[in-house]
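Work package 3, deliverable 3.1, input record:
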Amino acid sequence: MSIYAVIRVLVLLLVLLPLLSAVVVPVFGRCARRVSLILALVHLGITAAVVVVAVVAIGERNAGKVANPTAPTELQFRPEFVPGDSAAHIGSDATDARTTWTLFSLSNKQTRPGTPGPNVQFYIGIDGLNVWLVALASLMLIPVILVSWESVKEKPGAFFGWLFLLQAGIIGAFLSFDVILFYIFFELTLIPAFFLIGKWGMGSGRRDAARKFFLYTLAGSLLTLVGVIGVVLTNPNADGTITFSIPQLMVNVQEGLQNAHQKALAGDGADLAAKHATQFWLFLALMAGFMVKVPIWPFHTWLPSAYGEAPTGVTVMLSALMAKLGAFGILRLVLPLVPDASILYGLPVIGGFAAFGIIYAALCAYASKDIKLVIAYSSVSHLGFLVLALFAFNKEGLSGAVLHMVNHGLSTGAMFASLAFLVDRYRTTEISKFGGLMGRFPGFALLFFVLCLASVGLPGLNNFVSEMLMMAGLFDARNAGASRLWPAVVAAVGIFLSAWYTFTLLQRVFFNASKEPEPVLPQAPVPGVNRREFCAIGSLATVCLLLGLFPQILLDTMKPDVRTLSIIGDSARARVGGVPYVYVDDEPKPTALPAPIPINKGGDEKGKDKGKAPPKKGGNKKEQKAEDE
Amino acid sequence: MFEPIGLALIVLLLPLSACLLAAFSSLTPLKKLAHVPLIVACGSAAVVALLLLLKVLDSGAGVPPSKPITWFAAGHLQARFTITVDALSAIMLAMITFVGTWIAVFAGGYMRGDKGFPRFFAVMGLFVFSMCGLVLANNFFVLVAFWEGVGLCSYLLVGYYFEKPSAAAAARKAFLYTRLGDTGFLLGIFLLWKLGGWHTDLNLLFDHIQRFQPDAWQLTLACLLLFCGAVGKSAQFPLYVWLPDAMEGPTPVSALIHAATMVTAGVYLLARCAPLFAMAPDAQIVVSWIGGITALLAAFIALAQTDLKRILAYSTVSQLGFMFMALGTSGTISPAFAVTAAMFHLFTHAFFKALLFLAAGSVMHSMGGVIDVRQFGGLRKVMPTTHLTFLCGALALAGFPLLSGFWSKDLILESLLAAVDTESHYTAGYFTLFLVACVTAFLTAFYTFRAYFLTFWGPEKIPHEAGHHAHESTRSMTIPLLILAAGALSVGIVLEPFTHWFSDFLGSAPSLMQARGRTPAKDVAHHFNWIIASVSVVLALGGIGVAFALYRNGGAERAPAGMAKVFELSRKKLYVDEIYGAALVKPVEVLAFLARVFDGFLDALARLISTIPRFIGGWVRPIQNGLVQFYALSMALGVAVFLTFVVFRITR
């Protein structure tokens, strides 16, 4: 048994263990919470093993030199540790990153194992984009269980069972490399979330909130299914069969586009125009589901009620993980499969909504009267920034966005988790009922302050790093429609506004004279932070600090895949601009001090200026345009 | 280890360990000794910093920046931890740790018995650490990290008395106003990153921009955006309003953070970025004008204030304005001269303003927390040491001949006047600014001595909060006062007018040499200018004289004859807070409220759309009535209609 074979089994367990737990935990009834905690810790252990090996394996791949980085076969995701790898025999480390595990086949002809056929496969694996998100999904369940320890009194077994199912769906979606499998896991998350909100919710509006959440996201994601099928049908293999494998689809997409691009450069643009027209509709359909899931303004209205009504632990799951599924879908499906449309309509259209949402949600957060809602709206605001950075479609923006998915999950999840402290003691989180908590609960104040500071992007804590990278992505405004800096300015204003509502919240709740509502147990003195709560939130706060100081390991791991995506983006930019695409290896070498690069480098070679003769002073010219408009 | 970089790292790490020790002590019975680590750390850091200063003096040209360690890097963006030691950072480091030590000693006495004693010293340690880091940083992102770090400490210390609503509001206000400036600062950094060949290290970035000069207006824009950060942090117009409110914090905080160090970070930033600013004269005149407007405005508001600490706060704002006026001339005249003028004023100001704040703190301590000059008076006899040291600080601030403030203010006036005498487009502007500076110097002398006379002269008056035992403060508080007073009296005359030590040393900083390289700036010789000196002596003595005439017998409400209206305007701070509240804060709050209401509306819209299927369902439900005959009939009808359609279609 090689280590690869072991890790393949562990990767499979990442999905299967939560599924198994979901079945097992309800049996235990009374002591379900203890069993769940143990299972979650086992899962975290498995994840840790997978992450460590994956970081090493991807690091090795990173060191390797790619001969022809723009060939379509290079422009695909390369999952590691695929269970059922077609090239792997027992005891060998060989891998071709394809699986043989077919769930069902759409053709009655027997295809040779490993060849892409019209098969829906159980195709999962680890790559640089999902490894840290899986780690996050595994980690977050522990504070969720801990903060639900006392508060879930009614049928705890079922509650924790549903939680595990939710986790299984989320991890499955992160791991999937088959479009249909991705979609199945993506939708699977709705069922546990529906029951968790509707049955264990806090307020009277919980059933309504659960229904709204379910129908809203379902309506969006059904359109996504249409888009998924459309992508599959329009990008068949060379032999005419269809495939559901995302890496294979990427190759097919690139081959089709590169051929059309060659033709267009030779004077026959009909093919490319047709492809762009198709991509437009596919982009719209795919984005429908993801826009609701992220959510992007104006499709966010399910979010405040769902987050507000859900039990605290579930809100943590929803905000930290489920919201990331939408952004992850954009990363995994939209950008690689409809790249030209992502360039054409990403920043100008979706980015416009996202940018508006940043400001709008920040204002709503300020005016909200409940701490939970403030954090809920702040989540909408921050995720708008993330979507902007994704559609910037360059290395800085993509790395920043992936990192921000992790960071935002951590800090927002932890903030919601810390609210369990107030909910357990007072059963309310209304701002006006609290005051001066700094003197009343210094331990809680310390933790909450650290999380708030992380959330507003204070340097040294995690969000700062990803926000700076995303901002850099927006400044590298190579996108055809966005040769201006407005998204960056909006994002900067968003960063300021987040400090504005967060510090207003802190002032009202933690400063001033001490004030507290009627406690749940009126006789006993209200206790401070106990050890369980301190472990749950303190550990997350520590991770926030560590990620803020040492983020590079995460960035290194995602580097190969980010490079792949950025090449896809750059070539799409060239196609949209109607100029040939020339690959430039412009990465600063990590060892020597980088020699000063002339200003006009800025990536003109990538042909961002629409059809113009090669500009002489690219960097400056673009800026000029940016400011003129 | 004993290379300059190693020494700098020691200076950096000492306060951090003090912070951790103080924080840790809150869990132990040693709570009452939480101030010891900070005093020891700052003291030893000051010694090391002095050593470092000598090393840099030895090395002459300066030391290359430390080897970079990657913090985060992706694509073109590389943020790396690297520090630089040159004359500029060495002077700042020595000043911060020296002043910091004595303020820590003072605070040990001042804060005794307070509930949050360890918390106070932990955050102070963190502050000194961040401030040293800010000064040493050679990478924009590291700089921003420490920049925000000092902002956070300021927030935590202004809000130290968190039960007080006014302190809570002031803390938030301080953080948000500086953060507003930082928004521009960040955009500026990214614009520079783009212009400067994707560099983020300061020296490489400046080098690149000097070699490949970008469009002038882009550079101007980038410089102005950087200046936004300085405007926020150094409390310049229009973002200065947070600083007076920040006096809600304990007095040692006001002395260290809001007078001597943090608020000068903006000045330091511009001095550090002199190679950029010297290339953007259009940005420079804006810097000068903002400085001039701030200096005059703040001095005017300080005239009629009654809160001793707020008078000093406005005076700080005004003096920072002076520094920016001088900085704004760099490029027009030799950057080394302009930066020296600003930095020298920063240096002397740190001494005499820290002294003034500590003396005010000593007064406040013995008056039982009362700081309103109307409620006490004639404290000369009660607090002789405090009186004497306050007088030293006041004389230095007012620019009394031969004291430190006199020399540094002269340099600033000289730089402005030198800028007039050039081919710049803006000579008229610089001349106006020179006049503004003169008026401000007069006002400074006046309001400083108004505060002095009201506090220490006139009939003895002690508020009942002070109890029966209003007396001179303990020795741990008076010794720092005496040391800083000695500094306020002497640093000016020792370091500059005859020896030129300060300007020669600072002029050797590599970044200033670099700035020198690109500009057609006029060289200014360091000589003693009799005209300027006599003008400023007249202004200083005039201000003191008017204050003496009006306030030697107390009576804070007394306005000069016929100027009651002006006096009232000054007392009400020109209504700036009210104007901001009505023009900016309130509208945004209303907008936020409207957005929230609109969100409910959006939700209703989504619900409305979701009722459509049900509505349609209700409408078509009767069709599914379960009668097979009806289904058969409709099927037949359907087939008939379809056939008819097909027939017509074919026969047409």
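The longest helix of chain B spans residues 576-620.
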